[in-house]
Structures are given as structure tokens and as C-alpha cells.
Amino acid sequence: MTTFPVVFESSGTLLAGRVHRRTDDLLERQPGVLVTGSWLTVKEQMADLYAAELAARGYTAITFDFAGFGESGGEPRQFELPSRKIADIAAAARFASSLSFVRPGGLGYVGVCASAQYALAAIAYGAPIASFGSVAGWFHDTESVAPFYGGIDGVRMRLDRAQAALARFRDDGVVMTVPAYEPGNDRAGMFFEMDYYANPSRGALPSWRNEMAEASWLPWLTFDAKSTADVVAAPTLFVHSDGCVFPSHIEELRSRLRGPVSAVWGEGSQTDFYDQSDQVAFAVEALDAHFSSTLPSS
To answer: pTM for the whole thing?
Structure first.
């Protein structure tokens, strides 16, 4: 396996990426696939894992840190801003399509968890992505996400906190942060027990910064992931299970997307699909079959 860093620009910000290939021959053109992970994460978590598995199957898989996260530039830091991430996905797709070792004619995209909803929007807005795969895709709107935060009252409380944090940033440039993950802390982005983010052998890696800009609640809790579904025509695969979030949303999206859509239903919880061997192998097998039939073969 060969990996090497790349950099590209998104809206004037330099983003840091990593190329994964099973060959060091830069003259060998391979089908290209971009891979991103869940909210508040960095490329070294679920994205690099899936990229390595796809690279082993003959793809040039490219991961990157969104603006404000990891090794990428961008201010404010740790700000979960859907519009910025959607723009980054489009920039990454344009960059990957320009690489001479990526097979021309179409690029694939794998979105794990929350980045799947951003990728869907990016495709709707014209990002050059020819084929899309969602793994344990998180597609929410305010009504569906509210129960995670104690209902609409919990949403309002967090929106109030976010407005105060945004006012502080506007007044003196201070980014008010809270933990991205801390069980029992209702100010944290994720406040229920999740071994993935607690375990150093899983997602609690040195490269991951356990912080969230508190202003993130404003765009996160009001984002509508399903609003663009009716204009997406790219061939799409959903890898999901009844143990993943919003299985009914997958069925709704399947009925609304304009292009060919398929779904494979596995076993396991949401975070099992982040890094557990059985779920990852199940997902990669399905992704390989999907991209083999929807990306250029020569």
C-alpha cells in the first residue's frame, strides 16, 4: 500500500488530504473515490480505514480534512458548518478529477455517517461526483434530530447557547468550544456513551481533537439533509442496518432520488460500521460492486 499527502484549495483555504493506492506507479490510472467520515472527525478515523480497504481493491482512494479540522486550514476551528463542508466536498471532487493517476470519466464518493448527507447535497449542487455510496448514512432534519437532544426544548436550549457563542466570536474573535464527546455533559456534541470516541484503539486517536465550536448547533440542528434528494441523479448505494440511525430516511431517499438506487441491509450498530471488521468488510464488498458497475472501467 502506498499513501502520500496532497493539498488543494477550497474557497481560499488549503485542505490537507491523503492518497491511498496499492501501487507506487503514478502512471497507472485507477478509478478514483473520495472518502469522508462522521461529523467532528478527521481523516485518520473512519475515512482512512475505508480508503485503505478500497485501495486494496484497486481504487485510488482520497481522504481529506474538512476546513477547520485536522491538518487543514480554516477558521473558526472545530466548527461543524454544513455549507462549508458541502463546498469542501465539491472542491475535493474537482481536485481529484484533475489528477493524472485517476481514471477520467467519473469519480466515486463514500460518505460514512454524517458526511453522507453533505455529499448528497454537494451532488445536488453540481459537484462532479458520478457515483455515490452512503455507509450508515446520517440524514436528518430538525424534527428527526430533536429526540437525540431531549426534544424541541433541548434543541432550543442548544440554539440559545450557539447564538451566545456566535455573538462572542463576532465581538472578540473567541471560539467558544465544548467537548465533541463527553458522556453526561449536555453541552457536548455527543453526550451519551459511545465506545468509538472513548477508546484509543478505535476513534479516540491523537489526531482527533475532542472539541466542538458551540456555535455549531445553529447550522447542525437546522440542516435539512433530505431537501435536495429530488434532484440527485447519480447512481447511489445505501449500506445500512436497522441498528443504524434513521433507517426510515433511507427508504424515503430511495423513493425520491432520480437516478438508480440500491440498498444493502446488514447487521450492527451505527458505530460498528465505523471500524468493526465484519461491518466494514460487508460495506466494502457492496461499495466495490457498486463502483465497479458505475465508474469507468478503462
So the answer is: 0.98
